[in-house]
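in:
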């Protein structure tokens, strides 16, 4: 039995393959890219924390690689990008974010992603029952469209996960005071947490709420399980 089948046996929501047609409304699989130098850097130079996640928005060593230039010039049409990573052991939904511009993820290890649609946010609330969960195999390179709600990957083993994250330059960095505003008549501004980062969280997800995330996800934070971690 493969890992995807095992994940479906122990979780109460369907875990879909990124090869499933349902993924096409969230993003696409990028094929034919050799990202071995980036992957080798992640394997040798980055660690998975003992608890929680670590996110680094920009890593000079990876941004200088020719492989990053190729992605910049093809996927992003020459627009400036940043190359960073998210490593961790997360197993819960926590909330959702979106950006204005695609996000590319490179699965150094396998993981799951919980994905939704930004246009399903209504009056700054979101029902996570609308979201779908996808299994991302090791070595996959995917582009998530700007309308796709997402957050941190979720682990599928005790070892945790490693994910290369490529975004428009400046995304997920702190806002200057002059960039902050009360939103006026635009309710979306209530969700703006960092540059090019709009976030809606579960009310009981204290780390995000303390940062100023809007508590608009309905219900209690949901956890997903993997073989060896059930209940």
């Amino acid at each position: 039995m493969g890992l995807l089948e095992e994940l479906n046996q122990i979780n109460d929501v369907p875990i879909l393959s990124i090869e499933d047609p349902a993924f096409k409304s969230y993003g696409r699989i990028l094929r034919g890219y050799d990202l071995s130098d980036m992957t080798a850097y992640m394997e040798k130079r980055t660690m998975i924390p003992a608890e929680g996640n670590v996110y680094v928005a920009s890593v000079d060593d990876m941004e200088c690689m020719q492989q990053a230039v190729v992605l910049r010039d093809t996927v992003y049409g020459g627009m400036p990008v940043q190359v960073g990573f998210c490593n961790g052991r997360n197993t819960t939904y926590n909330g959702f974010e979106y950006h204005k511009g695609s996000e590319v993820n490179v699965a150094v290890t396998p993981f799951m992603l919980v994905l939704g649609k930004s246009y399903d946010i209504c009056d700054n609330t979101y029902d996570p029952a609308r979201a779908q969960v996808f299994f991302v195999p090791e070595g996959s390179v995917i582009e998530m469209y700007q309308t796709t709600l997402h957050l941190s990957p979720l682990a599928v083993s005790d070892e945790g996960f490693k994910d290369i994250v490529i975004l428009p330059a400046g995304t997920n960095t702190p806002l200057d005071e002059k960039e902050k505003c009360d939103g006026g008549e635009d309710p979306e501004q209530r969700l703006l947490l960092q540059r090019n980062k709009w976030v809606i969280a579960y009310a009981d997800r204290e780390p995000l709420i303390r940062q100023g995330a809007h508590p608009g996800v309905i219900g209690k934070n949901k956890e997903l399980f993997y073989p060896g971690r059930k209940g």
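note: Helices lie at 3-10, 36-45, 60-63, 66-74, 206-211.
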